[in-house]
Amino acid sequence: MSKKKNGTKNIIALASVPLVMTLGNSMLIPVLPMIEKKLSISSFQVSLIITVYSIVAIICIPIAGYLSDKFGRKKVLLPCLLIAGAGGALAAIASTAFKHPYPIILAGRVLQGIGSAGAAPVVMPFIGDLFKGDDERITAGLGDIETSNTAGKVLSPIIGSLLAAWFWFMPFWFIPFFSLISFFLVLFLVAKPEEQKEAPSISEFVKNVGRIFKRDGRWLFTVFIIGCVIMFLLFGVLFYLSDSLEKKYGIDGVAKGALLAIPLLFLSVSSYISGRKIGKDQGKMKFCIVFGMSAVTLSFIGLWWNHSFYLLFIFLCVSGIGIGMALPALDAVITEGVNNEESGTITSFYNSMRFIGVAAGPPIFAALMSNAGWLIFILSAFCGIVSVFLALLNISSQAKEKKESLKTV
Predict the structure, then answer these.
(1) Residue 34's CATH number
(2) What pLDDT does 90 receive?
(3) DSSP structural state of residue 199
(4) N or C: at which end does the chain have fewer Cβ atoms within 10 angstroms?
(5) How far is CA 281 from CA 121, 276, 278, 344, in A?
(6) Is the confidence at residue 404, as pLDDT, over 50?
(7) Where is the signal peptide (predicted)?
(8) Cα–chain-centroid distance for residue 276?
(9) How many domains, the chain?
């Protein structure tokens, strides 16, 4: 019983990390039009507040993954939570005290991206370490982590709008506050996993990773690409929806935040159910990825046909359900398919790809919105259907065989 309670405490504490990292990024999305006006900058410049954070994370995540394999998950996770909080504090101070804060805000977001690189991506292999040998607990734990992540996306537009209604810069101030909460939860509640095998030297590590990608790159790259596509569509659509609600429909403030949360709520519920139902069934993992991305594709085809106010939300809720099905399944495929010694590094590559999607979504959607808005839905549907075919062709339902092949590398 105590073991189960300890497992629950571990999950709660670790789930706070993606929740905090998501809040620290996504709660700025509904505030971006307000920041654009307050700082007198362009739509592209304001989108960089999201993009620079993600670009830095993309570069740093593989480094953090290797360090977590070498020195331990907790030793990397805790300092990075503090760095993320410090980055948020820098942006908050600049936005409050400086006359022209935009460059310092970007610098703070860079620092926050460095911290995030060693925080949220380390959680997935941490779950694998804590529940080693218990596939069902691992899959359920990963489902809880994705649910926390998506719950953060549901709460973030509401919290961001509420804080910005007070002062436009208040969302920046809450980033260090949330980071400290997560830091203390992980510090006191997360057990130290059993001793890991000594990580290889950098040269050996590079050779091992090269062999892994040479042998199993087909399914690994497929999972990476789909993860990137999902985040590209998710953050691009959120940027598009935030801008459209304010400029096209005249809806702003808390009302806009609540509307942004609707499709994300469907995503969160779907993610929770998917994570619980998959278990260790590899066939279900593949089904959830294929069916989920098919739903995403059909929803954007529907939006291309008609994206009036009510249909916009109906189709985006369908897309949210599809993404919610796919994300825990992708996490499970990655975690089940890699050997523990390289899990931190391989999952970090996966998270880097997800951050590429986060970085690319807002500026690309902003550019399309300025020129040919209808292309947004065609591009999104195309990305979805490519993901479906890649999953059908390259993701096997026999992930255990893959894991065994990785152990022989």
Answers:
(1) 1.20.1250.20
(2) 95
(3) P
(4) N
(5) 24, 11, 6, 23
(6) no
(7) none
(8) 19
(9) 1
